[in-house]
Design a protein that fits this description.
monooxygenase; binds protoporphyrin IX containing FE; steroid biosynthesis; lipid metabolism; membrane; transmembrane helix
């Protein structure tokens, strides 16, 4: 046992030594260069500062301490070492926008192994296949596609969902319901399945298993969380492949969902488009359309439940709009653009404060120079939007939920400049689904405030809905609401 003890000691010393050597080499390359690495610390050998990144918590809608403490110490650009990689973090809007607009030239997407194993090949598309992704998105979720395909169906969907609350218990968990509602719309727009279709229910179960696994340890052994997630992914792909074969067999004249759009572009085998299986394309769109929109709706309601004056203003806008319609008449695209300014400002303000995607991970493909500093080629680059969104330099009283800050006209941007609001990323990979997401959530708000009065129910314990750099902005104990229909 003393032999194995000393071998362990030797191994640990070697690992430490290798780590220290790596750190020295990382620095040495830039010691003689006139541009210096950004300030900051690479932390412990090998581990870097990953533990602080993964564990430091803060309530939703406040700056994450990992970033805010380093911003105070080093400024808006700093170096660190995360998830096994030397890293530069940018909280500087100028640098972040510059790098986003040079995606594919100076930086490229970087995803931890867990993400790429779960989300599959569509996550890292380049060149022609990435252009194909953008084209599919353009046909199915862009602003013109929303006008053509989603104006009526989104309203029918959320009306049916909200009507179902009339027959519910006095107190219900809205977070749970929203997840199912947003998922069922994304499965409808991708695969044309109705919410009560048994296949949609099977897919929902597997997609929910998947979404609980993004922070799992990537060890694929029987019984591990990661193993369950990968199995769910395989079942989902098999189900979508089966649905695609059935659809091909039936044929369809006009494209009404993303499956039709993809099938029309498939190669002769009929199973692949631009190098990817039909199922992988659809899978990626369901995830994109569902996860983030769900988080947005939950957080809209969380903020509304704490800000009665905002709900009152929403009521004024939406009840007035409803009065211009006959019973059950749907809103039009023009109503959305011209008569729902405040509602859209509530969505925008929630996107600013909640930071659903607080940062993006990229990898530098060249040495990048910025204000006398260098981001070396091959480093991970974290583009942090949340620190910009929550900074008093760009937003007065940044921690206040204040949708009125967006009510100024475009020519009078004032100090709440929308140019600094980048919740959907930017450049080549800017989220193509943003028109659909903002439309869905605005429509949901319209029907919610015209149909119900509600109150959030707090349990006995004081709830703190904290998040870390690696977790989603969700309520730990759900979002219990006491409802009262308005008519
Ligand atoms: C609140 C809702 C949403 C947020 C905050 C959001 C955020 C983002 C962000 C930040 C990116 C950029 C990723 C990068 O640069 O690597 C992205 C990409 C993407 N999003 Fe969204 N998203 C939302 C809703 C949607 C919806 C409804 C869809 C519909 C299908 C969608 C589909 C996609 C796709 C396909 C990409 C990949 C784009 C590419 O690689 O070119 N997203 N999203």
């Amino acid at each position: 046992s003393s032999l194995s003890g000393s071998s362990l000691l030797i191994a640990a010393t070697c690992i430490c030594f290798a780590g220290i050597l790596c750190c020295c080499l990382l620095h040495l390359r830039h010691l003689f260069c006139k541009h210096k690495l950004p300030p900051g610390s690479l932390g412990l050998p090998l581990l870097g500062e990953t533990l602080q990144f993964a564990l430091l918590r803060a309530p939703i809608g406040t700056p994450l301490p990992f970033f805010s403490s380093r911003m105070q110490r080093y400024g808006t650009v700093f170096k660190t070492h995360l998830l096994g990689r030397p890293t530069v973090v940018s909280m500087d809007p100028e640098l972040t926008k510059f790098l986003l607009s040079n995606d594919g030239k100076l930086v490229q997407g970087y995803y931890p192994k867990v993400f790429s194993r779960i989300l599959g090949p569509a996550l890292t598309l380049q060149g022609a296949s990435h252009r194909a992704l953008r084209e599919l998105a353009n046909l199915s979720v862009s602003s013109s596609a929303v006008q053509k395909l989603h104006v009526e169906t989104v309203q029918e969907h959320f009306l049916t969902c909200l009507e179902s609350w009339r027959h519910q218990a006095a107190v219900l968990d809205a977070q749970h319901d929203f997840k199912e509602w947003v998922f069922s719309y994304s499965i409808k727009l991708s695969l044309g399945l109705a919410a009560d279709d048994p296949t949609a229910e099977l897919l929902m179960r597997d997609f929910f298993t998947l979404s609980s696994g993004y922070s799992s340890v990537p060890i694929n052994l029987p019984g591990t969380q990661f193993n369950k997630v990968l199995k769910a992914r395989q079942r989902i792909l098999a189900t979508i492949t089966k649905l695609a074969r059935l659809r091909k067999h039936k044929g369809s004249k006009e494209a009404t969902d993303i499956l039709d759009v993809v099938l029309k572009r498939c190669d002769e085998s009929g199973e692949r488009y631009c190098g990817l299986d039909v199922a992988e394309w659809i899978f990626f769109f369901v995830v994109g359309a569902f996860e983030n929109t769900f988080l947005l709706i939950v957080n809209v309601l969380r903020f509304l439940s704490e800000n009665a004056h905002v709900v009152n203003q929403l009521k004024r806008e939406n009840v007035a709009l409803r009065r211009t319609k006959t019973h059950k008449e749907k809103l039009t695209w023009d109503d959305y653009l011209q008569k729902m300014h405040f509602t859209r400002s509530v969505v925008r303000e929630t996107l600013r404060l909640t930071n659903i995607a607080p940062y993006l991970m990229k990898e530098s493909t060249e040495d990048i120079l910025f204000k006398g500093m260098v981001i070396p080629r091959g480093w991970m680059v974290i583009l942090n939007f949340s620190m910009v969104h929550l900074s008093p330099c760009y937003y007065p009283n940044p921690l206040e939920f204040d949708p009125w800050r967006w009510m100024t006209s475009e020519s009078d941007k004032g100090s709440n400049n929308p140019d600094f609001l980048i919740p959907f990323g930017g450049g080549l990979r800017r989220c193509p689904g943003s028109p659909l997401a903002t439309f869905e959530v605005s429509i949901f708000i319209h029907y919610l405030v015209t149909l119900y009065k509600w109150e959030r129910v707090f349990g006995k314990d004081v709830q703190r809905d904290d998040v870390t750099c690696l977790s989603f902005p969700l309520m730990r104990n759900g979002l219990p609401l006491k409802l009262q229909p308005l008519d």
